[in-house]
Amino acid sequence: MSRFVQKNSKLEISYNAQSKRLLDIKLSQEVVKNFLDRIRKEDISVQHLEYTPYERQVIASYLDEEVGNEFGNMLRDIVNDRETGGFTIGLEGVSKDTDEYVIFSTAIAHLVGISNFDSMTGKYYARFVVKDTDASDSYLRQAYRLFTMHTDGTFVNEATDWLLMMKMVEENAVGGESRLLHLDDWSELDKFYKSPLGEHKFQYIAPPSKNVQEVVFRKLFFLKNNKPCICFIDQFAYPETIEEAKFLKALSHSIESDKSVIELKLNVGNLVVLNNEFWMHGRAAFEKNPNLNRELLRQRGHFYE
Ligand SMILES: [Fe+2]
């Protein structure tokens, strides 16, 4: 039994029904309400959070205080714990206002660490919509294609320790679940990690929509706390030999077809936080629907020093 599983008047933590690697944190409605009341009383807007970085950490402390019991510390422990490294949490129906979703996700993110600048939007977070049609240059917003398994932050130099994804809006959507795989559940991890190219530094170049110009070389596998971690995305890797290309294709195929991949069910107003170094994520294809409308929010960041 995970040391994090518990129940008190402020929260309840249990294993996610789809994966013992993920913990579901259910806050009491009172905690969420008290937190939002404090934000409303101080009239803290999303724009204010965008313009004033310290306010993101200040509101994180408000949520920490409402839950008590070293809540923020526990979230950091969960994300750093190799056995889990991930959790879900939400607003428990207390608000349907998407601005308040942004505020809540900001508080959670800044208990875990500090959000990185998102070059795609020029903010510390990104909201992006998936609809029936799309003319972008990556699979991020293409609804009817499988978005292959990867980690985030491959083509930037800064650390991307963790990732937060929140479901903001969902209408006429069947499919499109987040596909997730914990590295220790991947049956062929050792085969790829221990191969001669396992620690090769692959070249990554971002497409124009990411607004990132640099070329980055990153090790595919690297050790942290003596356990293998991974940095990989198929779309932006530029292998320099045919051997490298075939290796990456085989790796992607192996991850994609692993029987431990879960397709996470997540309600609107809920979010998932994952350790980006040993969890991989992707997205299942949606079923065709001309009225499809799904919006996600993401924040990626690094841990506090
Ligand atoms: Fe991603």
UniProtKB/TrEMBL annotation:
<dbReference type="InterPro" id="IPR015038">
    <property type="entry name" value="GlaH"/>
</dbReference>
<keyword id="KW-0408">Iron</keyword>
<keyword id="KW-0479">Metal-binding</keyword>
<protein>
    <submittedName>
        <fullName>Carbon starvation induced protein CsiD</fullName>
    </submittedName>
</protein>
<dbReference type="Pfam" id="PF08943">
    <property type="entry name" value="CsiD"/>
</dbReference>
<keyword id="KW-0223">Dioxygenase</keyword>
<dbReference type="InterPro" id="IPR042098">
    <property type="entry name" value="TauD-like_sf"/>
</dbReference>
<keyword id="KW-0560">Oxidoreductase</keyword>
